[in-house]
Amino acid sequence: MKRSVAILSSAVLVVALMTGCGKAEENAQQNQNPSSQTDGNKQGNQATDANDPLTQFPKLTLPYTADAKAVVVEYQGGTITGQEFEEFLRVINFMNPQQGTMIEAADNQALKAFAREYTATKILASRSDDAMKKEAKDLADKTFEKIKGQYMGFLGKDEAKFTKLMEGQGVTKEMVTNQMALINESITVLKKNISDNTLKQEFDKMDKASRTVASVRHILISTEQRKPEEALKIANDLEARLKKGEDFAKLAKEFTDDPGSKENGGLYADADVSQWVPEFKDAAITQKVGEVGPPVKTSFGYHIIKVENRKEKTFDEMKEQLRAGALESGYDAFGKNELDKLITKYNVPASKNEAAPK
């Protein structure tokens, strides 16, 4: 998991519902395969199922079996049972079906990672005070309504279908809000040591590139299958045509070798310039806004660049981004310095996805 579950703040959670539709669409395609049909009635039933929005959100299939009362993790001050771990995984799937796909494919190592993340959340949450708990629960209730609203959008605003969806996924409102409250509590505990003054100090240490966003159009002439001199000649010709007034977007769609921006007419809008390779980044920061610059050579080839707008973010604009980074760092420090010392034993059930030993 690229990002700790404990840092998935329900305050900013965006439920990736559409990314969870892959399993359902795949099932629907299989259902529509004529070779899998035995009679006309079956075909009709499967076609109906394929059009049912509930099939887009199937129940999570756990890649293991475990007794509800079995202890999955032992840590100083508590345990995690099989039931708790299952509820945690089902809620994660409900909040983000893309995570559900990862859970279903989890091997032994991945299951242990999920168990470790949940244990971290519980330990951190246990350090919250009553005020933190109330704030976390209120936020969880509000976030549940937002998630419900997103699901309802897919279900034609049908309350009965949403109820059926939750039953089908094996979750309840109480289960979801309790898990989200735990996550919120753990985040609040980490946040209490992150002051605005600390964030301002981090902001002041940042270089200009790290604070700059820009909208940049470019045309890439790749050197992957061309000699550098051939690519440079094409780039120079395009620069000349652009300076004579030809449409940048039109030429980008025709000539660029960058598939990521081709359909947008070569445009990367409001992007953090620090993500780009050094030569491209430097051009995005220094090139005069609104003018087409000379070809810029990178490891990809030659780029014709036009900076459409550029802005250096203020501290207030970056504060929450910096706070998120500080939360990540705080959680990482907790994991390295405390978590693995507090966990005394793992009893995570074996994954069915794990290859049997030879």
UniProtKB/TrEMBL annotation:
It holds the Pfam family Rotamase_3. Residues 27-49 have a biased composition (Polar residues). Residues 25-56 are annotated as: Disordered. One of its GO terms (molecular function) is peptidyl-prolyl cis-trans isomerase activity. Residues 211-309 form the PpiC domain. Keywords: Isomerase, Rotamase, Signal. Residues 1-24 form the signal peptide. It comes from the Bacteria. PANTHER family: PEPTIDYL-PROLYL CIS-TRANS ISOMERASE HP_0175-RELATED (PTHR47245:SF2), PEPTIDYLPROLYL ISOMERASE (PTHR47245). This is PpiC domain-containing protein. It comes from Brevibacillus parabrevis.
